Predict the 3D structure of the following.
Amino acid sequence: MLGGAEGIAGAGEFRVVATARDGFDAVRKVHQFDPDVVTMDLEMPELDGLGAIGYIMSETPRPIVVVSAHAGPGTGAAIRALELGAMEIVAKPDEANRAALVRMGPELRAAVRRALAADVSHVSVMARPPAPARRAPEAGLRPRARFAVAIAASTGGPRALAEVIPRLPTGRGAALLVVQHMPPKFTRSLAERLDSLSALHVVEADDGAPVVADTAYVAPGDYHMRVLRAPDGPAIALDQEPPMWGVRPAADPLFRSVAQVFGAQSLGVVLTGMGRDGAEGVRAIRAAGGGGIAQDRGSAVIAGMPTAAVQLGGVDAVFPLSEIAERIDHEIVARVARIGGRP
């Protein structure tokens, strides 16, 4: 454990086998004690958390939970940690005292449970994100999207999104709407990171924003995201209605709204994650004439969400992560050509 030991040990559910004073010490103790899971702060002397995660995932892979500040540069570093192979993020409390760390305990223990369910054999060693895409210069306002791709992801999702979104081309008339289960304030850094890698424009969604082509909207942490019909075309709606499946944002409300607004001009995609969020929503999209894709078990860090989507009958096809961007693009081109028009 490097960060969060007070929150882990107090409940008796987990046993802390070691703590470390810096990144080099963490790497040594992972080899020495062989823990089932590691909690890791990113701000450390000598070797920082990103360097330590790189060593651990290349030498002796295991689930890692990042405990990170939710302001300033810490959020961007946390997103990079997920790309390197960390499974979960927990926001570090603002107060730097033991009582605050203990209050963080329930959230941290829940993240550790999810991380322990992950199959780290599906995390390639020291994976590098794709090279930044060359984005065409802005040429006036983008038109309203005539097709919507709704994407659901949880544990392992930021890494999966970095595989999918940067590989999608522009010029298809489509918008992406993304729900990634993540604590508040980290979703903006996720959007900024994906934007730096993608030809698509990737933003954290704002309430009331128009849904325009060649843009991906990431649901803000702690807000459900939906699309609504507006006088000028589809628009984003954010709310703080109760969590669904224990999470907010949840994918099912988004997917159902996409089915209602875009109908057959939509595609639901369910990626890696624990639980069943997205399963009912992708079935609604398919019932409205749209399509459904799920990530296969062999490439998912946790296959619960895509498996539930398949079992509920909302999925047309299952693909490995490496093929999903190509299949999304194929579906958009085929459905727009067949259906035409706009919602």
Observations:
- The first helix runs from residue 5 to 9.
